[in-house]
Amino acid sequence: MKNKRWQKTALVSLLSVTMLAVSACGGSNETGGKDNKNPIKIGVVTSRSGAVEAYGTQEINGLKLGIKYATGGTEEINGRKIQVLVEDDAGKADEGIKKARKLLEEEKVDILQGSASSAVAQAIAPLAEEYKKVFMVDPAAADEITGKNFNKYVFRSARSLSQDAATGAKYAVENLGKTFFHIAPDYVFGKSSAAAWKESIEKSGGKVIQEEFAPVNTQDFTPYLQKAIQSKAEVLIITWAGAGGATLLKQVNELKIAEKMKITSVIPDIAGIKSFGDAGVGMQGPAPYYHALPQNDVNKWLVENHQKEFNSPPDLFTSSGFVAGVALVQAIKKAGSTDTDKLIAALEGLTVKGPKGDYTFRKEDHQALQPMYIVKLEKKQGVDHLVPVLVKELSGQDTAPPVTVKK
Questions:
Q1: Residue, of 383 and 5, whose pLDDT is higher
Q2: Is there a common fold for 40-159+294-370 and 162-287+373-394?
Q3: I need a labelling partner for 71 at 20 to 30 A (CA). Which of 1, 159, 218, 337 fits?
Q4: Is 97 helix (H, G, I), strand (E, B) or coil?
């Protein structure tokens, strides 16, 4: 009898200890409570070197400012500090995978964010699924990320290439010409862009006569530009990302392509706009963001604080990085936790106020629907680059890409 009583007491004690241990482990994701002061870790894998290093810098600056804005300057949620840990992928997929694993396994990050390269973002997405962590994509824009290669852990605050095309193609067909020649880089970003533009152009009543994909390290674009002239297309579409774009645009100027055909392109960051030179005067195309376009309090805050911290205005990818920060803070607050399933539930359908207005993470594919712009590049006294002047603003619904997620 005594032995049975001892066994019962021991069992109760063991259960109590087990429940306390489970409670302690389960509480590690919660944002509230006096006992949980562990930081919330956001692991960023992006380009800190390589062809799109500048995009990575814009992304990180935007992310940090978005967190600052959404937390009222405290950079913490319910007493837990938010840590942003950055790793350089150098624009290489294998390096991105290695750095993401480091953040997931060694740093035990709660959330992944990145990358400036679409190829890297696509390589990391399966890891988000493997480790069951939310992956907030920005600036990578390839459609496949929230399309055929989508998994439920992936969200994107950046615009997609189909949103660019939905913004620019219809306008180009109606205002620039009916026939098109497209030059793009020979990797996932360029192929995805070409496919998106072709679909939108044909849907709008135009025709893509020819597509040419140049290696990313191309130094002489003359053969491609000569083919564009020989095609007799009315409009040249230029898609490029990173340093090679300056070389392409320089040669567009040297060959006086603008005198032979209209040119349209997604308006790049400020460094990219400078590359257009005088040949860019009057160019019309879609613009994901330019700091002087949106007129709202959020953008005003971003412009003022970016100028204060970095002595420059926010750039192309600063805005989507900012939205990533705001959305993650709001989702964590809404979920009351960094638990992945709760974060996914909080992010799906979430609408946040960003620099361009409302951004809504569509439930079906987690793509952020957002306002987009058609602009015209003009000279402005006192500004050292051509300035995007608003022609037309389109809503997030107007430019919503098709849902292509595999069921």
A1: 383
A2: yes
A3: 159
A4: helix
Range list of H helices, 259-368: 270-276, 297-310, 318-335, 340-347
- 374 close to 392: Cβ distance less than 8 angstroms: yes
Structural contact between residues 235 and 177, judged by C-beta atoms closer than 8 angstroms: yes
Q: What is the pTM of this model?
A: 0.89
The 3-state secondary structure of 177-240 reads CCEEEEEEECCHHHHHHHHHHHHHHHHCCCEEEEEEEECCCCCCCHHHHHHHHHCCCCEEEECC
Domain ranges of the chain: 40-159+294-370, 162-287+373-394
pLDDT tens-place string over residues 289-322: 999 999 999 999 999 999 999 999 999 999 999 9
Residues 284, 288, 291: CA angle, nearest 5 degrees: 95
Structure tokens at 346: 């909080």
**Whether the Cβ atoms of residue 225 and residue 251 lie closer than 8 Å to each other:** yes
Cβ atoms within 10 Å of 108's Cβ, excluding its own: 11
The answer to whether 236 touches 209, Cβ cutoff 8 Å, is no
Peptide bond into 28 cis (omega under 30): no
The H or E element that residue 265 is part of is strand 262-265
Report residue 111 as tokens.
Answer: 């959330």
Q: How confident is the model at residue 364 (pLDDT cuts 50, 70, 90)?
A: very high
pLDDT tops 70 at residue 33: no
- The CATH fold assigned to 162-287+373-394 is Rossmann fold (3.40.50)
The band of 21, judged by pLDDT with boundaries at 50, 70 and 90, is very low
311 burial type by CB count under 10 A (0-12 exposed, 13-18 middle, 19+ buried): exposed
198 Cβ contact list (under 8 Å, min separation 6) = 182, 208, 211
Single-letter code of the amino acid located at 317: F
Burial class (CB in 10 A: 0-12, 13-18, 19+), 297: exposed
Fold that domain 40-159+294-370 belongs to in CATH: Rossmann fold (3.40.50)
**pLDDT greater than 90 at residue 276:** no
